[in-house]
Amino acid sequence: MIELWTILIAVVTAAACALAGSFLVLRREALVSEGLAHAVLPGIVIAFVLTHDRTSPLLIVGAAATGLAMILLVQLIRRTGVVDRDASLGVVFPALFSMGVLLANAELADVHFHADCIIDGNLSLAVLERVVVGGVDLGPKALWSMGAALLVTAAFVVVFFKELQLVTFDAQLAGALGFRPLLLQGVWLALVAIVATAAFETAGSILVVALMIAPPAAAILWTDDLVRLLVLSVALGVASAVVGFFVASGIDIAPAGPMATVAGILVLGSLVVAPGQGLLARRRRSVGAGLELDARLLRVRAEASGLQGDALREQLGWSSGRFERASARGLAQR
Questions:
Q1: Residue 59 pLDDT
Q2: In this structure, are 236 and 316 located in the same domain?
Q3: Is the CB of residue 157 less than 8 Å from the CB of residue 19?
Q4: Per the domain annotation, does 275 fall within a domain?
Q5: Which of 12, 142, 220, 246 is the most exposed place for a label (fewest CB within 10 A)?
Q6: pLDDT in tens, 211-255
Q7: Are residues 216 and 296 in the same domain?
């Protein structure tokens, strides 16, 4: 039963992260997920100083608050036009993460922060924290928090799908049509911050970043349709979680690392075999274009010179293989 709960938590977490990260990848803002995974630290530290309770919901509230603060600061710096998009993010999130480290050293010098809480997470331990109402065990707290984050994010995508699509691909047109792209982007980034915060303790910063970036990055290679891309991103994220979990179980380690590894392998595999944008497909198109050019050149030279066979091949200076392939391509086009 514990394994089943763990898989469910992993699946819901992967689906929420993949859906939240899709529009970040499409807008070339994937680094936002990395920033959020670090910027939540000062909020966690401040909330723990106030409550001295590791299970307090204020830890999530504090983490979400600093995540939103990071997004607002980045947007404000970008509006100045002095610093570009990536540089503004690179300025803000290291500053917030450094602040968190300083606060931890100053206020929590005697408290041990294990790497599992900040970097790796531990899905297996997430099963142990339960939601109990009236003496009834309703399941792991992580499943409820990630399920709520997934439902809110999915509902927002469904309700504002057309607006998100327009703002993502042509923000200037969205503004000209009367939409408020900056407001919509801000709300979406706030949802991303909530998803990242909910997944932070359960999955750890490494897995959160991997699940937000890798599945959408792989999906983009397979389809140009936004709906299919979102569905495929979620499917690839879920596949990464499930396969990674069983790999981790087989070698008896925490599942975060194998899940992130599987997600990376899916990206590399898609990069090679995807029918539209994969390397093999591009290679086939390149070879086909070369054959097409050779066939046209062969036909023009034959008509101009009146030569055929080996005489024509020698005049062109081609190898026998190249001449035969061009001839076959020319015959196939007739």
A1: 72
A2: no
A3: yes
A4: no
A5: 246
A6: 999 999 999 999 989 999 999 999 999 999 999 989 988 888 878
A7: no
